[in-house]
């Protein structure tokens, strides 16, 4: 939570120059407080694992958050029990009349397919179109980020020569971005994907900017100019054993796969992985919740209306 200080206190300018968030008394007394309403569109086949990972990151904050879980009806889940889905998940038809402070769109293991070949693509397009007018801030993860950049801005994903698989160092490109407030000069995050959207393509869209990159892994984070849409290509929410589980799964299936980079000590898969991304992952989600949702979302969500109007020249009109 921010510290509240007098507006004229000299420390205010010093702290703000160091990218430390402070709240003036004037702003504090004008704030209304209510629980945040957050929706997670879970596109992963192992939904319970993804729920655990994301909820762990979102729970470590003093904010009160009401979580809703969303599934697509145009795809039948084969890896999650129907009783779990019927008990805890809702459908787009059930929520499309509501408004939310935040939305998370997860990744999905469909990178090697064209977007239009994914069986729930049209439903996802409807949800992404709806997010512009019914959600204050949307966080897109991995394939969800690639799908969002394609749908909203027409940016096509590109195949990599081999799977990007491991834990990679990154750096931020702008000093005072609240999303990376408190980060070290170099931070690590896991990646697991076969495709990418390049920094050059993202920079070609005037309303987008690249926020963090890796020399080896490419773009880590990008955002719309008003920060209402965030796109991340990595998985800061991954558990310590997630990459190991993917590696041994593929080995067991006879699928060619390299040992995940910078993960097992000495690249020896018999050893316990070293976790060097957990604190930054936690900080990333806390920063998104605090600075991109809680501090900026309207108290009355009906005020969202057309605040996220379609981007001129985007793919929206052609794919929705």
TrEMBL record:
EC class (word): transferase
Site (Important for acyl-CoA specificity): 111
GO BP terms: L-methionine biosynthetic process from homoserine via O-succinyl-L-homoserine and cystathionine
Enzyme Commission number(s) from the entry: 2.3.1.31
UniProtKB keywords: Acyltransferase, Amino-acid biosynthesis, Cytoplasm, Methionine biosynthesis, Transferase
Keyword DNA repair carried by entry: no
Pathway recorded for this protein: Amino-acid biosynthesis; L-methionine biosynthesis via de novo pathway; O-acetyl-L-homoserine from L-homoserine: step 1/1
Classification via InterPro entries: Class_I_gatase-like, HST_MetA, MetA_family
Important for substrate specificity (site feature) positions: 192
Family under the similarity heading: Belongs to the MetA family.
Entry protein name: Homoserine O-acetyltransferase
Organism in which the protein naturally occurs: Papillibacter cinnamivorans DSM 12816
Gene name of the record: metAA
């Amino acid at each position: 939570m921010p510290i509240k200080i007098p507006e004229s206190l000299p420390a205010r300018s010093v702290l703000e120059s160091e990218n430390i968030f402070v709240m003036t008394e004037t702003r504090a007394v004008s704030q209304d407080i209510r629980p945040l309403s957050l929706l997670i569109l879970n596109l992963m086949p192992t939904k319970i694992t993804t729920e655990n990972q994301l909820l762990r990151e979102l729970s470590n904050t003093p904010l009160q958050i009401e979580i809703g879980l969303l599934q697509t009806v145009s795809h039948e889940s084969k890896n999650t029990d129907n009783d779990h889905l019927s008990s805890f998940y809702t459908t787009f038809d059930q929520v499309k009349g509501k408004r939310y402070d935040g939305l998370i769109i997860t990744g999905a293991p469909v990178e090697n397919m064209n977007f239009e070949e994914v069986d729930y693509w049209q439903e996802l397009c409807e949800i992404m179109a709806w997010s512009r007018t019914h959600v204050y801030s949307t966080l897109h993860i991995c394939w969800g980020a690639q799908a969002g950049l394609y749908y909203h801005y027409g940016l096509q994903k590109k195949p990599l020569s081999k799977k990007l698989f491991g834990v990679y160092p990154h750096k931020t490109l702008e000093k005072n971005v609240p999303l990376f407030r408190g980060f070290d000069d170099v931070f690590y995050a896991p990646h697991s994907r076969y495709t990418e959207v390049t920094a050059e393509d993202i920079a070609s869209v005037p309303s987008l900017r690249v926020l963090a990159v890796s020399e080896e892994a490419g773009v880590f984070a990008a955002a719309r100019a008003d920060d209402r849409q965030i796109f991340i290509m990595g998985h800061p929410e991954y558990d310590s054993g997630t990459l190991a589980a993917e590696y041994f799964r593929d080995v067991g299936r006879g699928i060619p796969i390299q040992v995940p980079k910078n993960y097992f000590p000495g690249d020896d898969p018999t050893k316990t992985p070293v976790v060097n991304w957990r604190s930054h992952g936690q900080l990333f989600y806390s920063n998104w919740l605090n600075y991109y949702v809680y501090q900026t979302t309207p108290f009355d969500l009906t005020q969202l209306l057309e605040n996220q109007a379609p981007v001129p020249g985007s793919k929206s009109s052609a794919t929705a």
